[in-house]
Batch of 3 targets.
Target 1
Amino acid sequence: MGKKRLTDEERRAHQREHDRRYRQRPEARAAKSRYQQSPEGREVARRSRLRYLAKPGIRERNRAYARNQYKKPEILKRRRSTLLKQYKISLEDYTAFLAKQGGVYAICRKPETMRNGSHGRIQALSVDHDHVTDQLRGLLCNRCNTLVGKVEDQSGLLRQAAEYLERFMAAVTSR
């Protein structure tokens, strides 16, 4: 009597279990990581991602999913909680402020275009507030909010920076 012959399903199950055990080995994980970080591995991943996104309806399905994420009760609850804890405003106040600004940033007057990396949805605008009084000043893009934060709310420093840039532009155009 020889070995018992495996059915196709048993052979596939055995192969899956072998593959699973192999992938858990540290040296196999390290090799996979090195490959994924190599130029060839990144190119293979990019082509695979493009093939997936080229399938009919995939982009629309992903966009619909991202749009509906903000409508989920747990997401709204977390957003409400964050706004209340950090800025002492409600989600309704935030929405009213956004409408008052016409849906654009308070400084650069552009609509939000930056997308969240994990879901691809457009990011919420940053809440800008006075760090002394905690009073809400406006809703800003990440870049403008960082700029205001870096100059530590010193409007004189911003004016000096603007004058510096204007002097440079005047020198370049006069040549």
Target 2
Amino acid sequence: MNDNTRIATVFVGGLALGYLISKLTKDNSKDENTKQDSFSEGPYEHVFSEEETEKRQKSFLDVDISLLRKGNHESPSKSGTMSPCYDSVFRVVLTGGPCAGKSTIISTLHSYLTSKGFNVLHVQETATTLKNSGLVWSPELGAEFQNACISVQHNRENVAYRWGKSIAKSCLRKKTVIIYDRALVDGLCFVTEEMFNACLQNVGIEGDLYRRYDAVFHLVTAADGAVDFYKNTTYRFESVEQAIEQDRKLQQVWSNHPNHHIFGNDSSFQVKIEKVVGQLSEQLGLNTLQHKPIRYLLKSEPVIPVLLPVIRETYFKTYINYPSNEEGFHFAFLRYSKRLHGSTKVGATTYVLKQVFNHHGQEVTRKRNLTRLEYFELLRRQDPSRKVVEQKRAYVSLKDGSLLEAVQYEKPIKLHLLNIYCVVDTQFDKSIIPSCFDMKEEVTGNEEYSAHYISACNKNHSTNNK
């Protein structure tokens, strides 16, 4: 199977659960001198070799991380700052209290990073995965559940890291970004330090946990600063006060990580997303791009020169009758996309649910990555009044750091657009756009060129390139 992202999600989850079952059914005793280093035979015990650990020590700030340091590892170097350039894998943790926007931001980062030429892996939240598998927390099984969480999370992180290194060379940037939806350290927020350390010992985890992650992004719960947007669901039951308390505990347990960033709710949710994207761009050495593109109608389909580095993708958008009773709900659609490597080789496939709301004068977008099964289940709810939108997209990076996104509508109408994502706080020079993009007129902000509008088009719709 060529689908790197889906393979990683399924494989990491399956291997981790298999490892958990073996841990729960076998004796916990372990030969401390035996380390499995085979990708297929089991988890390896440390993310870094001694040589790699020594090299990465130079990239950390001088901080007190004694709380989560185990064993006799040395402190981080006092010189230098965090740099993402030491490895072919960059690992970022997204954490925070309930209803902080993690799912939407993870989906946004995935789309953004793949368009910039990175491979992206997403390690899903372990506690939720276990609950969905029937391993449900209860007071009398608190320690056992935490043992299970740490066992699975540890194994998933290790597998994702090894997988990320294996596939890094296959992408334009030669780098894989791993996005963790919470990580090992989060467990300290929900149990006592004594229980947490005992669980680490049971699983055989040693060393400085912070060094497993290159950056930590804390997304503050909507309950703190955006309470009008805080919503309870079937899986989110905390009160506003409980959500704030949990959020601040998470800030505390992660506070000693040398590359820890907090994203609050001092503005709109869209601004929060842009700040996260901007900070990750900085970490990876990318220019921060404007969220809203300048859009042009093209006269014809661009013929992009073979020598110009390009990333291609095929999109299918299906609008659905989504069962939402939430105030301000506007519409929802499913997105199925295939990323292409080279001229014919199919790369990653992703499935996304996107919901759009109008809340208190703000347009709020929620995105969530889906499994293939979830996608086809929701596909049954297709809105019969709208047509499936099929697009082909091509991404080209310009010498000034800007990004071109050529959008070719295949169905329900033929249409060619060019979206230009400019570098923030710079004046864009149109003369650097390759001549293959023959622009007719600017249509920025014109809803007639949006997928939502086009999905309702009939055959006689007037929007075209002529």
Target 3
Amino acid sequence: MLEETQFYQELSRFASTVAGMNVSSLNRMVLRKLLEASGSSHAAALVMIERIDLSRLNADIESRIRQLLKLGKAIRESAKAIQIMDFLQASIDQKIVFVNHLATLSYLHGLIQRKGISSAVYQGSMTADQKSTAIQSFRDGRRVLLASGSGGEGHNLQFCHILINYDLPWNPIEIEQCIVRLHRINQEKAVEVYNFCNLPEEVRLGGDDHPLLYGSPILDRLVQLATAGISVAYGAVSIPYIKKAEFDAAIVQDLSFINGKVQIGVRAETKTNYMIITSRYVALSDERKEGLMRLTFHEPSGAIIEGFDDAITDFECMYYRQGNLPPQFSPRIGVSLQSALKSLQHRIENDLAPFLASMRRRLHRDVTNTREYYRSLAEEMRTSLAHPNLSDTQRMERQQKIDSLPVEADRKIADLQHKYDTRIHIRACAGERYLVDVAQLIVTILYRKATRMLPVFYNPVTRRIDPLVCESCKKTTRRVVLQDGKTNFVLMCPECSRT
């Protein structure tokens, strides 16, 4: 993949340089189209580069264009194309692949043929008969339909349920046109939509006063951001004063050991880590609801820390570069992070509860109305059977229609259930890890004749004792129930203690 990386890097540098040179044949619109093509494939970018009239350019630009052509033609395999080949071969289900650039479509078709995958091609320059033949061959069992944007217009393809947007157009309506070809009445499965993105480096054009950002279509950028790895910032919180006394009252106020006693032992100042996760969620049903959710957890324990993300804005923070992090930022936070993400999921589900309830009410309303409609229709048609002017043939046909009404009603209700089916997508999109000076208290917990020593932390950011974590379900709790364990007693939340 080295050749492909070099090609995209050189293309980005070329566009950034030429944009400031006011070359009429390589104006910003041309450069934007070139970068947009490169977001589809190196093949599409090469077609545009080959169309550039070299006779109107100076020697330096001409040399760089020839270098781009050389790099692009040296690419043997595209990372994006390899991914989609793996995806196409992963199952025998039929799939539709929408592509914006004909050069990309031709490139993918060649790869698919070499892999031995049966396919059909549909694109705008074909005749009406050729288009019908392509659609019919796909309907007859070919595994892949490669289509340009025109493939999303005027065809019912509900026999297929997997759609792949290899490129994303500017206009979201065009995306919807593609999806509705599959998402129609008589579609027996949930429609799956996959977006493939492969962007070159973003290029900054223009001066500092009026910068412009050029790259692939903005929808590509948004989808890439939604699927990229989480970006994490690292900082240390400046704490002007750490509480040194009156911890007994703080523990009584912030923690409750329902059937045990607590004694405070050693007190010491130390450092510990907290992480703020920001997640984006999208709920898709007949309507769409989306939002952001922030949650802070104590990295060593996994306890959720309420109010930390709001209170930290009152403190000064020093931020670190990725390559210069203090050793206190441990890479081993997987267990705590997993527990925190489960809590985040529960909170998002609670936040979506009114939306989900609304979808259920609307489904119940529409199903009730549909059943009432078909009940009334059947009753009306049964009454009409007694009409004296009906022939025996008409009466038999009408009875057959009456008999088919329950099946038709069930099909309509199934369509409604699919319409209101809610899919929730959650993705962590940013993280902030903070190193904080805290007061650590080693407490002794007394339960019957047993004792246990446990560290608890006074958090100067929230000005509270941090909560604990249930040793059964891993949920955060400030009310702790002590129960006998195999070797010693365990700390449990009230819910787990009752099971």
